[in-house]
């Protein structure tokens, strides 16, 4: 346990800070575990999706029909 002793700081606060640090460390470890578990499979799925849609993704965009110009509303009477 690594903390600096401050005489006027109650022990309860010191222990609470230490407990919070431990919880944060556990959350971080769990996050890392989940990330390593999902990492490669998700990446593989995304890569497969990109490969399947590559022709569409890389095709030059075709100019579509041009939108009709809006009729100008006259504000001058």
Largest sheet: none
Return the string of H and E elements: HH
Protein structure class? mainly alpha
DSSP strand (E) fraction?
Answer: under 5%
- Mean pLDDT equals 76
Can you give a write-up of this model?
With 77 residues, the chain is an all-alpha fold. It is 61% helix and 0% strand. The longest helix has 42 residues, at 11-52. The radius of gyration is 30 Å and the shape is elongated. The N and C termini lie far apart (82 Å).
Strands, helices and their partners?
Blueprint: H1 11-52, H2 54-58
Provide a brief overview of the structure.
With 77 residues, the chain is mainly alpha-helical. It has helices at 11-52, 54-58.
Throw out a few tags for this protein.
mainly alpha, single chain
